[in-house]
Design a protein that fits this description.
With 281 residues, the chain is an alpha+beta fold. It contains six helices and ten strands; from the N terminus they run ββββββββββαααααα. The protein has a six-stranded antiparallel sheet with strand order 3-2-1-8-9-10, with no helix packed on it. Strands 4-5 form a two-stranded antiparallel sheet. Strands 6-7 form a two-stranded antiparallel sheet. Helix 2 crosses helix 3 and helix 4 (199-213) packs across helix 5. It is globular and about 40 Å long.
Length: 281
């Protein structure tokens, strides 16, 4: 059960619990205090002197939001009502908030990020960051699909000769992806884990995973509708047509399919959400 909290400005630098019980919250370091961005829901956390980590949420409602250190307490000039859950996450109006300070509540991808995070498909790049505008790498893509599969135990290590360059966290994912045929590398025994994944590579990996799982592969989009359809590699045509037919990968605002373009993490979250809702479930 979430416990309702409200800030009582008359109580000074304290939290009001259900607007009548006052609880003091010590802070550990002024640099850990909440940083507020205008016109943005901001989630941040700091470690208190008692070793607990507190997470807070602020909604800008055209009122001043300032956070200062005063008498070993956190002073808040204005904080909206919220619920603090048992796991120290925050809910507003009954809707759980993401722990990522770089995901705006009005961003086009917020629902997708929330979906992939809550379903353990994608994690943040840090405790409070998702980096939605950061390009997705080939290692990240393998990890995402490995997460989608539930992270099964891996018996054999990957045989790509450049695995020494792969991030430690991705080794099991790449091994699983290679062993299942979800990935096959870029040729010459290489996987190139830190390279940005292209849109057609992402489509191919998703198609391979769908084939591995026995999902429907019959959908086919008409790639000729895109003025740059000739940029789609021969090896990726079936996968790109399938991804477009399932509305996983669509054209940009300028009408191009941009097969060799990169995929940012926000786009990947949206694609994965649609993949899970429309093909898996």
């Amino acid at each position: 059960m979430a416990e309702d909290y409200a800030f009582d400005p008359d109580a000074g630098n304290r939290w009001g619990v259900e607007a009548d019980t006052v609880t003091e919250v010590p802070y550990k370091d002024e640099s850990d205090l909440l940083k507020v961005n205008d016109d943005q829901l901001t989630i941040s956390s700091f470690e208190s002197t008692n070793g607990e980590t507190y997470t807070y949420l602020v909604i800008n409602e055209n009122k001043p939001h300032t956070v200062t250190a005063n008498d070993a307490h956190v002073a808040w000039e204005y904080i909206s009502q919220f619920s603090r859950n048992a796991d120290k996450t925050i809910s507003v109006n009954g809707v759980a908030a993401l722990p990522f300070s770089d995901v705006r509540v009005d961003a086009w991808y917020v629902d997708a990020v929330k979906y992939v995070y809550e379903n353990s498909m994608m994690a943040g790049t840090g405790n409070t960051t998702f980096e939605p505008e950061t390009n997705l790498t080939r290692a990240m893509t393998a990890q995402i699909l490995y997460n989608l599969e539930g992270k099964p135990e891996v018996a054999e290590a990957a045989t790509f000769t450049d695995m020494n360059t792969a991030p430690d966290w991705s080794e099991d994912a790449i091994a699983w992806a290679q062993n299942t045929g979800v990935v096959s590398g870029i040729g010459g025994g290489l996987f190139d884990p830190n390279a940005n994944v292209t849109r057609q590579e992402f489509a191919q990996m998703l198609y391979n995973y769908a084939k591995y799982k026995g999902y429907d592969l019959t959908a086919a989009g008409d790639l000729s509708q895109f003025p740059d359809s000739g940029s789609v590699a021969d090896w990726a045509e079936i996968a790109m047509s399938w991804a477009n037919g399932n509305e996983l990968i669509n054209g940009h605002d300028d009408g191009t399919i941009d097969a060799t373009g990169t995929t940012i993490r926000a786009q990947a979250a949206s694609i994965l959400m649609n993949f899970d809702l429309n093909l898996v479930k």
